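User: Could you go from structure to sequence for me? I need the amino acid at each position, not a summary. Structure tokens:
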């Protein structure tokens, strides 16, 4: 299988299946497609359209069969590798895990808009300003921290549903955002953030992101350079 992804510093959608595959030891090849722009005539669009008719990353290609959209990729992997226990075993707990993944997939638009993923940056000042000026971002943050706190308390940790699941992969980019923007979080959530960052998959992704040294102005809201 080959997973096509974009820049690791910026591409939160790419991070989810990459972390899922890497953390669970499912073998795959990485297909790295640098963002140059998202215009129809960009090199990125020309290449990704060879693999995904939507012209976006990520896309998982298994043989000659492409699967796009992060939820579809996650479900495909769960069915393809049932021994990896990518979802919780209990039907109700599994339904809850699917629910919070779907919530991430379609929600938290304010947080995603104002706090774009930018792993190598330290934007705590901008983060505090956004929280003060954007009630919708504060509401998204409150929902995420209350959700995580509830799930961790119920499962006993260390991950949201006890062991590492698709849900942790889906929220890994949020973890990096909360660090980048210096989000204030409860102690239990801070512990979860630290544990996610320590996962070998997340640690490897973040290391690669910091080593890209590829400053893309169209991905930057708060900086005009890397310094």
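Assistant: Here is the amino acid at each position, in order:
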């Amino acid at each position: 299988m080959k997973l096509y992804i974009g820049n690791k510093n910026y591409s939160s959608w790419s991070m989810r299946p990459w972390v899922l595959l890497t953390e669970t030891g499912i073998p795959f090849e990485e297909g790295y497609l640098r963002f140059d722009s998202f215009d129809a005539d960009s090199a990125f669009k020309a290449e990704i359209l060879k693999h995904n008719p939507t012209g976006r990353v990520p896309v998982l290609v298994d043989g000659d069969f492409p699967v796009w959209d992060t939820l579809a990729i996650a479900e495909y992997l769960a069915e393809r590798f049932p021994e990896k226990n990518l979802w919780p075993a209990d039907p109700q707990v599994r339904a809850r895990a699917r629910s919070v993944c779907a919530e991430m997939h379609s929600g938290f638009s304010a947080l995603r808009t104002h706090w774009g993923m930018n792993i190598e940056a330290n934007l705590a000042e901008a983060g505090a300003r956004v929280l003060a000026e954007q009630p919708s971002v504060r509401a998204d943050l409150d929902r995420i921290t209350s959700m995580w706190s509830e799930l961790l308390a119920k499962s006993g940790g260390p991950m949201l549903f006890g062991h590492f699941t698709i849900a942790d992969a889906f929220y890994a980019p949020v973890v990096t955002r909360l660090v980048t923007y210096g989000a204030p979080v409860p102690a239990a959530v801070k512990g979860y953030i630290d544990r996610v960052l320590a996962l070998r998959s997340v640690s490897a992704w973040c290391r690669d992101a910091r080593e890209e040294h590829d400053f893309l102005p169209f991905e930057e809201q708060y900086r005009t350079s890397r310094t």
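One structural detail worth keeping in mind: The first helix runs from residue 12 to 24.
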